[in-house]
Amino acid sequence: MASPAAPSAASTETAGSSHCCFCSMQCGMELVPSDKTSVGLAIKPSPSFPVATGRLCQKGLNALDHVVHPERITEPRMKTGSGAELLTEAWKPAAWNEAYSSIAGRLRDIGTRHGKHAIAVYGGGSLTNEVCYLLGKFGRVALGTRYIDYNGRYCMSSAAAAGNQAFGLDRGMTMPLSDIRSARYIILAGTNIAECQPTMMPYLLDAKKNGATIVTIDPRNTMTSKVADIHVRLQPGFDSVLVNGLLNVILAERLYADDFIRERTVGFERLEEAVKPFTPDRVEEISGVLAGVVRTIARGFAKAETGIVLTARGLEQQINGVENTLNYINLSLVTGKIGRPGCGYGAVTGQANGQGGREHGQKADQLPGYRLLENAADREYVANVWGIDPAELPGKGVSAYEMLQKIDEGEIKAMIVLGSNPVVSSPNSSWIGKALQKLELLVVVDMFETETAAYAHWLLPGSSFLEGEGTLTNLEGRVFHRSQSLELPGRCKHDYRIICELADALGRGDYFQYEGIEDVFLELARATAGAKADYSGITYKRLQEENGLFWPCPSDDHPGTPLLFRDRFHHADGKARLFGITPNMPAEPVDRDFPYVLTTGRVSSHYLSGAQTRRTEGLNKKAPVPVAEIHPWLAGQIGLTVNGRIRLTSRRGSLVCDAKVTEGIHPRTVFVPFHWGGQLSINRLTNDALDPVSRMPEFKICAIRVEPEPKPAEAY
Ligand SMILES: Nc1nc2c(c(=O)[nH]1)N[C@H]1C(S)=C(S)[C@@H](COP(=O)(O)OP(=O)(O)OC[C@H]3O[C@@H](n4cnc5c(=O)[nH]c(N)nc54)[C@H](O)[C@@H]3O)O[C@H]1N2
Ligand SMILES: Nc1nc2c(c(=O)[nH]1)N[C@H]1C(S)=C(S)[C@@H](COP(=O)(O)OP(=O)(O)OC[C@H]3O[C@@H](n4cnc5c(=O)[nH]c(N)nc54)[C@H](O)[C@@H]3O)O[C@H]1N2
Ligand code: SF4
Ligand SMILES: [Mo]
């Protein structure tokens, strides 16, 4: 196979400016000529983008490597076999027109035999707003299928559902990051910012300099908890117990914001009822968190003049993820710490465009701007923008994991994956490869032959972040423009072109006529006019001139909305909803056979399924394999020897890996990062129980057995 051509800069002077492809901070970067790298370019932090001025973390600094990696796919590739044959068959290079006509022909044939809902689309949150928008439109208009969802289902879905329920609106953060500096009390729950959004740390350190108290709540001591004044080492699954304890103290000691609750919320009575039994002593009994600590945090947060609560996947990726999130939101609301400077609640978005990626119609039940497929007026509005009859729009589909289940059950026969690697990132993953072998057609659009692409009939070479222009929306809700800085290598195409050309091959090209990517954005902006995530006042020109704009931004002269909910929440009555949360057990409690808890997450040098960072030498050498964190007590229990390996076994699978013995982790909990595939994939063990509302899998809790693994003799 041809290797990618040396990159050529799209403009000549500096190679241009961009934004990192990895996390939701979306730090600005510049590509500068360099004789120190083989490609003659290097990445430097942007001196001007205001989110992380002058800063990039190690992932950002190394983000060029995967783009120019020799394993980059630079031409369409095909396989002719089916099922297990695909795993051994060699790829054949093909022409684009051959790819389009073959794929379209097979899709038409599958549609004729099984109906249009036999075809599914699986998208991602790394893609630009324009590509996410087009993918949603492609699913509904070109394919007519109800089955489209995306990897953000595994990511922000619990936070999104909770935001909608409590505030009537899902924007990860209710305030700009700059407000962190003036918060006097900051609670960070299940969020490891130092490793996952490293350039956010200066905001926390500034807050500390200004006198803020920082509390971290996590089963592990993390890089983030190092900056905390109080660290609660919480057993996974006990967030709602702890928060009920905090609320109990706030209510019992009348530390709540009376006026705010009366004027701006409903539901206080049910909250009061639910938290009554959770006295600090009871919380200590159930969770092991000392009653005194519960009182200290409750009083500190409630009495502070300003305060911010941030949560992330730690408590969201659970079957009680929505309820856990709602409870942390309760904390912000009862103390009146929302809608004014220095205050706010934030679910820290994960992926580059995890925020925009869920706003524009990739989600099973949504149309652009968060309009809903099940709302007649919303259907009519969007159908009108798209020039189709509202009756042509399909209904809502199912979540990402449930689509995979429908493949296994035989209902879905074809799938197009763009921007995700579900074989690695899905829970209880060992069956997924087998299920994908049942597909009559799997098309993967990616930069690499990923673990998922190994099951594909067609692998199409898409664009990297440096090659595609577009807009993204960062964790604050700030929409910004990213320009193209490199030419496409080989025969790669822009993702958006691939979608439009495939629509054309399917005979639906009339609905996908764009003069360029900005044209797609203008249609997106129109499709969101008047909707919750209103982008209609945003243009490329404004984004370039104003360093981004916070949505909602409903008109040309609207300044955007950095701080949400100043006067009203997004429910029809303008009020936020408080909820009474009764803590529930995880789906798989520990028992005699599986006595410990496995929790999973990230390390600083890898990103998600590792497709990009395992191909980045500077990052991969820091974490070439997964290492389990275990407590010395547990190491003693199982008789682990120095440098010994361990075997972790759940009801679904088993992983052998190295162990790092650390006092920092909760004694009965083991943490393993999930960035590897095959035999190194921890997702073969995780539980696929789903939150009943968000359909988020319980990545953060399952029951395991832990044993020492005898080293094979040849290892010495
Ligand atoms: N380096 C790096 N950065 C990333 C990513 C990456 O893969 N690598 N991915 C990006 C994406 S898409 C996302 S979604 C974010 C994720 O960002 P985070 O959610 O911050 O990352 P995680 O490591 O998944 O989980 C956070 C913490 O939750 C803790 N935790 C586990 N169970 C519980 C629990 O029951 N309660 C509480 N309170 N805490 C618990 C874990 O110990 C962990 O430290 O990061 C983004 N940034
Ligand atoms: N056990 C466990 N599992 C988890 C989690 C956890 O905490 N624990 N976290 C979950 C979370 S929060 C998330 S977000 C998911 C993510 O899971 P995935 O979506 O599987 O992760 P990625 O590695 O980002 O996959 C993106 C794929 O798209 C490709 N890609 C990237 N950018 C582009 C682009 O611009 N164009 C094209 N065409 N392709 C592109 C990459 O090469 C990669 O193959 O994993 C989830 N899985
Ligand atoms: S903090 Fe996030 S966006 Fe910034 S350089 Fe690191 S990975 Fe990229
Ligand atoms: Mo994520």
Automatic annotation (TrEMBL):
Domain 4Fe-4S Mo/W bis-MGD-type: from-to ranges: 13-71
Instruction: Give one GO term, molecular function aspect.
Output: molybdopterin cofactor binding
Q: Provide the alphabetized UniProt keywords.
A: 4Fe-4S, Iron, Iron-sulfur, Metal-binding
Give any Pfam family that matches: Molybdopterin
Report if keyword Transmembrane is assigned.
no
Q: Which domain of life is it from?
A: Bacteria
Give the required cofactors.
Mo-bis(molybdopterin guanine dinucleotide)
PROSITE patterns from the UniProt entry: 4FE4S_MOW_BIS_MGD
Q: Which GO terms describe its biological process?
A: respiratory electron transport chain
DNA damage among keywords: no
What name does this protein carry?
Answer: Nitrite reductase
- Organism equals Paenibacillus piri
Q: What is the lineage of its organism?
A: Bacteria, Bacillati, Bacillota, Bacilli, Bacillales
